[in-house]
Each structure stands twice: as structure tokens, then as C-alpha cells.
């Protein structure tokens, strides 16, 4: 008998609004779901973690505006690439965490306006970010980020902006090669106590590679209501519809050399494609109870439907089908409390709360009869139930020293009810994971412009349901797969002076039970996973921003990362200890030189992006993706006439027409590891805005 997933229950906190105190008295913001440093204007020199902020201007610098990777490449420690395959979403990793993900995002927690875009099992979908109304994005790395849930690599959190005071209607349309077109319509305005910010957008493309045609429609709404001087309410609604997105699959090294734009023959034979429909809503409530206390609450819920046609029939006894259908309901909440007070005569800020998140999905599998749905091979209901409790505090030890400490206890339970009993075997089962993660950070303000910090923390990642989906042998979920646990350390320096901004971080993460692709995946095509012994990631992140006279500015982000297995014994007896983690470059760099003549409305910039060699497999024996450096150019001009504003823009990516591998499918089946990046590409567009005054 099929279960029905429960509706979203509980209340979710977004501890992002400080209690009413003087600026001199207030310490660091200690939000729960919105995380340390979520205040837009907060001085982050006292935060004992690495923080990168992307403003609305940086998110929309003559870009298509559809993919988070367009701007995240600016962030040190992150590798964010467009797969040129909208069926599998972007590939994002942070300090090496998440590089194994063949689709979606693993190891990095995604949040928008306090609502988690990462499901309770740890799988996140970056396509859900509302980039059209984004005010800014915060990217946080370091040991203290492990206080916020099931992830080890850090947090990417987006903040939707309020609509402008005067009613404003805007259209922005961009065109590119291969039938690329994206257009959005956005409205914002203040109507009494109600603020409205809404947008709809459509993306169409035939794709750089064969068999990669895509249509994606999005709609987003933010309603903000100032109830009174002490409380506010925000409603957020998001929708995504992406029907029949073609999947060209990865290529072998030989196929890349023959024709880098081709799709795999199996993608044509089995008509590989993916349909996604996603709808969700969230409600934030904030109430200042007194000068020292604040209560925040939020509830969210939604539904997600996925149908995917894979490149094999899937008719074997334990295959589970070559057509996958997932019908998911999800929701949850968090209730939090925040106070500015004193303890032992020292100013202290406290945050505490409890969370509940739920994910339930009906999973069915069918035989792929050359692009048509055939006989049923799988039928089960899977559920994830997650509860957390946390306590975080920041102590002002003296005017220069600040101590941040916290602890979070998490309990995650996976449950599967098997309704496919034709094979005579009931594969129902459940497993529960429990973990308590402490973290500690210390910051020292050496001068008003420079600070130093150090931090320690412990984190964990549970397997996702997709990673549990198949056993190496037999049917049912792979409950032998265990969470990976990490111990993280970081020291850093921050400098802020006039037009100069410098961030430097040195970090190390030691991981036990690293989750890796199983050997059977490369032989059978089934996505099986296993636990490796131990691994270590250590490296350096540097970001430098410098302004000059006459509107010239320069920016550099560089990462040195050594990520390798310390202990890794495969089931076949091979020893992979000492091998480099696949998909992780040792060096990554982004640089930009821009010119914006004051008072002209014109801006142009030259960008450089570089990644070093990346291995495709755990054993490092397959042909590696060679290192590369590419250069991009962009320009835009903004001109206002009365109530109208027009902004034409253009960009050229890969000016040197370099051939390189953009992303890797780590340990992919059939040695199809490689997803080629496009050659020289152009983009032109125009934004048109009218404001009623």
C-alpha cells in the first residue's frame, strides 16, 4: 500500500535580524538558517570564517542570468561549471566537497531567504535559485558552517531583494548561438505596507551539443508585509517547469577527439531526457519581543516531480528500470530565539532553536523500450525524516577578541517501503544516522582594517537517497553505506581599507568514510556508491580586490587545493591510498580588470578563468582533463530618459576559441567521463525598464 507524504509541518527560523541595540553594543549576527554573516552591511572582519559576497550587479554583469555558475566562478575555493546539459544541472564543489556529484549539488548546503534548497538527504538543486530578483549571494566556507546541517563544504545562501519603492516593470532579453534565448519580465513596487517583487522567465536553447535541447520556465513571487514596528511577514513562492530536457550524456576521450559536440549513440537509441516540475512556498515571520529578545519562525513545503529516461533498458532482475519516476513532497520548519545579553560581565549574543525537515517520494522504475516506458521494475516509497537542535553564542571577550562557539545535534532517518514484490523479495528497510557537531572560532581585530581568525569544527554528510538507491549486488537500498564525517580547521586574515579588500584562508579537512562511486557503476551503469577509508583536503584561498582612479578596478581569486585519499582499499583489493580526489583541480583562478568611467553609464571588463588538470576516476588512471585558461570580454551601457531606462549589453566567452573539458562525470559508466565546454561564444541582449513616479 502506497503512503502519502505528510504536508510541511513545523516552524522554521531565519535568525537574520538583530535585536534592537546600538551598533557599538551589537555583536555578530547569529542567524540559524541564514547563517553567520547574513547581514548585508555587517562588518565581517569579526567573523571567524571565509565569506564571499556577490552583489546584484555582479550577478547580472552582462550574463545570461540563468545559471549560478556565471557568477560563482568569482569565489575562491569553489569550482562552479555549466555542464552544457540542463538535464543534470550545474556542477558545484567547495574545497573538493561535492566534486563526485553526477547531478545536482552534494556537500554544499543551498539556502534562499531562509528556505533550504537542499533536501534533508543532502541533495541540492541550484536551478531553484531565483537569480532574477536576487539582491546578493553569500558563499561561506570554514569549520563554523558545519553548524548548519547536513553538509561539509560550506553554504551558498541567496537573498531576494525587495521591490523598488516606485512601481517598476522591467524586461530583459538575451540571445546567443545554438538557438539560445532567455527573456524575463519582472515587476516590483511598494503598495502601502505591502512590498511586491515578482518575475517570470523562459529559457530556450538547442544546446551546444547534439541532443541537448532545453526549455525552462520559472516564476517567483516575494510579498513582504510590515505588520507593525516589531514584526514582519514574508511570503515566498517559487515554481520551475522543465519538460523533456534532452540529455546528451558524457563522452569518452576518443569521442571527444572525434566530435566534441556529439551525443552518445545510446542517447538517441533510448531518447535520454528528463522532465522536472517543482513548486514550493515558504512563510517567514519575525517578531521582536523586547529590546533583548527576538523570535523568528518559518514554515515551507512543496512538491517535485521527476521523470528521467536513462541510456539502457533496465530490464534485468535487479536493475530497477531505465525509466525513473519520482513524485516527491517535502517540507519542514524551524523555530528560533535570539538574545543580546551579558554573561560573566561580558557582552554575549545567543541563538538557539529546533528544526524539522521531511522528504517523502514515490519512486517507480520501468523498462526503457527505446524511448518509451515499458514494464514496471520498481515501486517503493522512500522517506527522510530529519530533526536538529542547535545552540550558538558569540562572546565579546574584549574590544579586540571575539569568541564564537556552537553545537548542533542532528538525527536523520531513512525509511523505504517496497511495494514491488514480483521478485518475491521485500526490500523494505530503514536506517538512522545521529551526529553531534561542535564548532569553535576566535577572531582578533589587530587594527581597524585588519583581523585574524582561527576555527575548528566537525561535520558530516549522509548519503542521499540517490546514492542509496542501488546495492552493488541484489535489489533494494544500500543501507550499508554510512555517512562521511569531517574534522575541519582554518586560520585566516581579512583586510579592509579604502578601495582595498584582501581575504586569505588556510584550511584543512580530514574526512572519514568518504562516499565514492562504487566499482559496479563503471561496469553496469548503475549508480552504486561505497565508503572509502580516509581522505584529506588542505589548501589556501586568496581574494584581492583593488580600486583605482578613473573607474578602474581589479579582482583576483586564487585557490591551491591538495585533495587526496589517505586510506582507500577497494573491494577488488587494489590500494588507492595517496591518489588525488577526482574532479578536483589543484589550482583554480579567476581574475578581472574592469573600467567604469564615472558618470557615463558604461562598463567593460576582461575576465580570465583557469583550472589545472583534473582526474576523472578514483584510481587516476583514466585520461585526465587537461588544465586550461580562457579569457572573456563583456560590456554594457545604461541610459535613462525620463521614466525609462535602457541597457544594451554584450559578451564574448572563450576569446581564444580554446578547446577544453568543462566538467567531469567522476567515475562515469563506460568511461564516459567528459563534458566538453563550448568554443568561442557570443551573447547580446537588452534590458528595458519603466518606473511610475
UniProtKB/TrEMBL annotation:
UniProt xrefs under InterPro entries: Beta-barrel_TonB, Beta-barrel_TonB_sf, Plug_dom, Plug_dom_sf, TonB-dep_rcpt-like
- Keywords assigned by UniProt, alphabetized: Cell outer membrane, Membrane, Receptor, Signal, TonB box, Transmembrane, Transmembrane beta strand, Transport
Alphabetized Gene3D superfamilies for the sequence: TonB-dependent receptor, beta-barrel domain, TonB-dependent receptor, plug domain
Q: Sorted alphabetically, which Pfam families does this protein's record hold?
A: Plug, TonB_dep_Rec_b-barrel
- GO MF annotation, one: siderophore uptake transmembrane transporter activity
Q: What does the record say about its membrane topology?
A: Multi-pass membrane protein
Q: Which CDD domains match?
A: ligand_gated_channel (cd01347)
Q: Which residues form the TonB-dependent receptor-like beta-barrel domain?
A: 204-655
**One of the record's GO cellular component terms:** cell outer membrane
Compartments reported by the entry: Cell outer membrane
**Where in this chain does the record put each TonB-dependent receptor plug domain?**
46-154
Q: Does the keyword Aminoacyl-tRNA synthetase apply?
A: no
Signal peptide range in chain numbering: 1-19
Q: Which SUPFAM superfamilies match?
A: Porins
A biological process from GO = siderophore transmembrane transport
Q: Which domain of life is it from?
A: Bacteria
Q: Does the keyword DNA-binding apply?
A: no
Q: Belongs to which family?
A: Belongs to the TonB-dependent receptor family.
**Protein name (record):** TonB-dependent receptor
Recorded source organism is: Halopseudomonas pelagia
Amino acid at each position: 500500500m502506497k503512503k502519502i507524504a505528510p504536508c510541511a509541518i513545523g516552524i522554521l527560523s531565519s535568525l537574520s535580524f538583530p535585536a534592537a541595540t546600538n551598533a557599538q553594543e551589537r555583536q555578530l549576527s547569529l542567524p540559524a538558517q541564514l547563517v553567520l554573516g547574513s547581514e548585508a552591511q555587517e562588518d565581517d572582519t569579526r567573523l571567524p570564517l571565509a565569506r564571499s559576497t556577490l552583489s546584484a550587479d555582479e550577478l547580472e554583469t552582462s550574463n545570461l542570468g540563468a545559471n549560478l555558475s556565471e557568477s560563482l566562478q568569482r569565489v575562491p575555493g569553489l569550482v562552479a561549471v555549466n555542464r552544457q546539459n540542463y538535464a543534470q544541472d550545474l556542477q558545484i564543489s567547495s574545497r573538493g566537497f561535492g566534486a563526485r556529484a553526477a547531478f545536482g549539488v552534494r556537500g554544499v548546503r543551498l539556502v534562499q531567504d531562509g528556505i533550504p534548497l537542499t533536501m534533508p538527504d543532502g541533495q541540492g538543486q541550484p536551478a531553484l535559485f531565483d537569480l532574477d530578483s536576487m539582491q546578493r549571494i553569500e558563499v561561506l566556507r570554514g569549520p563554523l558552517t558545519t553548524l548548519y546541517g547536513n553538509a561539509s563544504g560550506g553554504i551558498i545562501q541567496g537573498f531576494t531583494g525587495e521591490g523598488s519603492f516606485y512601481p517598476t516593470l522591467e524586461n530583459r532579453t538575451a540571445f546567443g548561438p545554438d538557438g539560445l534565448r532567455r527573456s524575463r519580465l519582472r515587476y516590483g513596487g511598494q503598495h502601502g505596507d505591502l512590498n511586491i517583487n515578482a518575475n517570470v522567465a523562459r529559457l530556450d536553447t538547442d544546446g551546444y551539443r547534439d541532443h541537448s535541447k532545453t526549455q525552462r520556465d520559472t516564476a517567483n513571487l516575494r510579498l513582504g508585509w510590515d505588520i507593525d514596528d516589531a514584526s514582519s511577514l514574508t511570503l515566498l513562492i517559487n515554481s520551475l517547469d522543465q519538460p523533456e530536457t534532452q540529455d546528451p550524456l558524457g563522452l569518452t576521450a576518443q569521442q571527444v577527439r572525434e566530435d566534441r559536440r556529439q551525443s552518445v549513440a545510446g542517447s538517441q537509441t533510448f531518447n535520454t531526457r528528463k522532465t522536472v516540475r517543482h513548486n514550493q512556498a515558504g512563510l517567514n515571520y519575525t517578531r521582536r519581543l523586547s529590546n533583548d529578545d527576538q523570535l523568528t519562525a518559518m514554515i515551507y513545503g512543496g512538491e517535485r516531480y521527476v521523470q528521467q529516461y536513462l541510456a539502457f533498458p533496465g530490464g534485468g532482475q535487479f536493475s530497477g528500470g531505465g525509466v525513473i519516476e519520482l513524485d516527491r513532497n517535502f517540507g519542514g520548519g524551524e523555530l528560533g530565539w535570539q538574545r543580546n545579553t551579558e554573561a560573566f560581565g561580558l557582552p554575549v549574543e545567543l541563538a538557539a532553536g529546533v528544526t524539522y525537515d521531511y522528504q517523502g517520494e514515490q519512486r517507480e522504475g520501468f523498462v526503457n523500450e527505446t524511448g518509451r516506458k515499458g514494464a514496471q521494475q520498481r515501486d517503493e516509497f522512500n522517506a527522510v525524516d530529519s530533526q536538529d537542535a542547535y545552540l550558538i553564542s558569540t562572546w565579546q571577550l574584549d574590544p579586540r577578541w571575539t569568541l564564537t562557539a556552537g553545537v548542533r545535534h542532528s538525527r536523520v532517518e531513512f525509511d523505504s517501503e517496497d511495494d514491488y514484490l514480483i521478485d518475491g523479495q521485500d526490500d523494505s528497510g530503514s536506517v538512522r544516522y545521529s551526529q553531534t557537531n561542535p564548532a569553535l572560532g576566535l577572531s582578533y581585530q589587530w587594527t581597524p582594517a585588519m583581523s585574524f581568525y582561527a576555527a575548528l569544527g566537525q561535520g558530516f554528510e549522509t548519503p542521499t537517497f540517490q546514492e542509496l538507491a542501488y546495492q552493488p549486488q541484489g535489489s533494494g537500498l544500500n543501507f550499508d553505506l554510512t555517512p562521511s564525517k569531517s574534522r575541519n580547521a582554518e586560520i585566516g586574515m581579512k583586510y579592509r581599507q579604502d578601495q582595498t579588500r584582501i581575504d586569505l584562508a588556510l584550511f584543512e579537512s580530514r574526512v572519514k568514510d568518504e562516499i565514492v562511486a562504487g566499482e559496479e557503476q563503471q561496469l553496469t551503469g548503475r549508480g552504486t556508491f561505497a565508503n572509502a577509508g580516509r581522505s584529506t583536503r588542505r589548501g589556501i584561498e586568496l581574494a584581492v580586490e583593488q580600486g583605482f582612479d578613473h573607474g578602474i578596478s581589479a579582482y583576483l581569486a586564487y585557490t591551491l587545493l591538495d585533495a587526496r585519499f589517505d586510506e582507500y582499499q577497494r573491494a577488488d583489493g587494489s590500494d588507492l591510498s595517496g591518489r588525488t580526489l577526482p574532479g578536483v583541480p589543484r589550482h583554480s583562478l579567476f581574475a578581472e580588470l574592469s573600467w567604469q568611467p564615472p558618470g557615463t553609464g558604461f562598463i567593460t571588463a576582461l575576465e580570465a578563468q583557469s583550472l589545472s588538470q583534473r582526474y576523472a576516476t578514483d584510481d587516476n588512471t583514466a585520461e585526465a582533463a587537461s588544465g586550461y585558461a580562457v579569457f572573456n570580454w563583456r560590456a554594457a551601457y545604461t541610459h535613462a530618459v525620463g521614466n525609462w531606462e535602457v541597457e544594451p549589453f554584450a559578451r564574448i566567452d572563450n576569446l581564444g576559441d580554446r578547446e577544453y573539458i568543462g566538467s567531469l562525470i567522476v567515475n562515469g559508466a563506460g568511461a564516459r567521463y567528459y563534458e566538453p565546454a563550448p568554443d568561442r561564444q557570443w551573447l547580446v541582449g537588452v534590458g528595458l525598464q519603466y518606473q511610475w513616479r
